[in-house]
Amino acid sequence: MTTAAAPPQLAARARAARTSPVREILALTARPEVISFAGGLPAPELIDADGIRRAYDQVLTDEPRRVLQYSTSEGDPDLRAAIAARLARRGLPTEPDHLLVTTGSQQALTLLATALLEPGDAVVVEDPTYLAVLQCFGFAGARVLPAPTDSQGIIPDELADLVARERPRLLYLVPTFQNPTGRTMPADRREAIAEVAARQGLWIVEDDPYGELRYEGTAQPWIASYPAAADRTVLLGSFSKTMAPGMRLGWLRAPAALRRACVIAKQAADLHTSTVDQAAAARYLADADPDVHIARMCAVYRERRDAMVDGLAGALPAGSSWNRPEGGMFVWARLPAGHDATALLPAVVAHDVAYVPGAPFFAGAPDPGTLRLSFATHAPARIAEGMARLARALGGQAATG
User: What 3-state DSSP class applies to 150?
Assistant: First the structure.
């Protein structure tokens, strides 16, 4: 009788990978009675379901054989043309051939990691940073280095010192309405970071999923628009926040050689993004008025942001602090010294309300008192009820914001 050997092990990168704490928290808060400020979910009632349905109906009526067939890896030409036109109107001259359509901007990160990173390469991120990029770079076997930040994002002089010392391959950042902090980097820092990349041979991955969701203030230029960094900056975008996350449509704008490498990586991953979804998105952008729809979203989200920011004064313990983002979906808060947002979460969920602890977002030493709250999903009255529940859970009282 043959004795069976133990099953072969997973690859080292799979054994070392960690699951997403945010996804685990979302599973815990799936009960309908929970008011969850945990997920960065667009408000479902603000998704233009009727307009999107018409777009699908139209392309399936007019071109069923094309939109239900295999397509090119680069993406639907009409969709790339629409994206290029929108970028150009917002101040970044772009041709359709500069773009690659991806299955959500998360896939763009995976393609870039495949094209740019060898195991052991160093990458620099804001600290804290977008949680899923830590997973992505971890799977690639990269060393993730935290860049020093303040309330305006990465500090350029300290970034320059870090890059000179560690020689990383790339810098990843979300300069506008950052996830998780909601902060926006001013133009002078963006220009300084472009200069650091030019001097020290650094790729920049500039992720911009929230940029059109501005409620006040002045739009800042993309890092990709600065001449110093134009040949080494990849700009990522997504329709998940302004059209529908379920369509899983994103894109990357990159220099030609890198874009071609990403096309080849995409061919190995999924051949191409869904043909019919791309065609429907292109038709929606052509036939609907997306700018009017986005303006409506911004008006609604502005009220929700204000409701959350105003409500935190009574919801969090005395000595807490938080920001007031100019756009996006998130407020970043910090509890007083001695409070641990992760340890407090079970008691908070027991009161049928939830947030995301800030600790998992840090590439460096975490700040245990931090937490992220999303205001996008719930109406102001529901946010107010959530703040009341949070106050009961945390013993909130008048605090300083």
Answer: strand
The residue with tokens 């911009």 is: 208
Q: Where are the beta strands (DSSP E) in 32-108?
A: 35-36, 99-102
Q: How far is CA 65 from the centre of its chain?
A: 34
pLDDT at 398: 38
What torsion do the CA atoms of 228, 231, 233, 239 make, to the nearest 10 degrees?
120
SS3 8: coil
Report which of residues 163 and 20 the model is more confident about. 163
CA 387 to chain centre: 25
Closest CA to 307 of 385, 397, 210: 385
Q: Considering only CA atoms, which of 62, 96, 60, 57 is closest in space to residue 76?
A: 96
303-320 pLDDT, tens digit per residue, is: 999 999 999 999 999 999
Asked if 25 and 373 count as a contact pair (C-beta separation under 8 A), the reply is no
Residue 401 in this model has a pLDDT that exceeds 50: no
CA-to-CA distance for 157 and 192, rounded, in angstroms? Answer: 8
Structure tokens belonging to residue 83: 């994206």
pLDDT at residue 382 tops 50: yes
Contact 206, 234 (CB under 8 A): yes
Of 233, 376, 225, whose CA–CA distance to 298 is shortest? 376
Strand partners, 102: 250
Instruction: Give the span between the Cα atoms of 167 and 278, in whole angstroms.
Output: 38
* C-alpha span between 77 and 375 (Å, rounded): 35
The helix (run of H) or strand (run of E) holding residue 197 is helix 187-200
- Poorest-pLDDT segment among 5-14, 164-173, 307-316, 387-396: 5-14
Q: What residues contact residue 157 under an 8 Å CB cut-off, 6+ apart?
A: none
Sequence-distant (6+) residues with CB within 8 A of 331 are 182, 305, 308, 309, 312, 322, 323, 324, 325, 372, 373, 374, 375
Please provide residue 224's backbone torsions phi and psi, each rounded to the nearest 5 degrees: -60, -20
User: Can you point out the beta strands (E) in 135-215?
Assistant: 143-147, 149-150, 153-154, 170-173, 203-207
Name the token pair of 323.
Answer: 């920001």
Whole-number Å distance between alpha carbons of 102 and 400: 43
Question: pLDDT band for position 92 (50/70/90)?
Answer: very high
Residue 15 scores a pLDDT above 80: no
Q: Which helix (H) or strand (E) holds 251?
A: strand 250-253
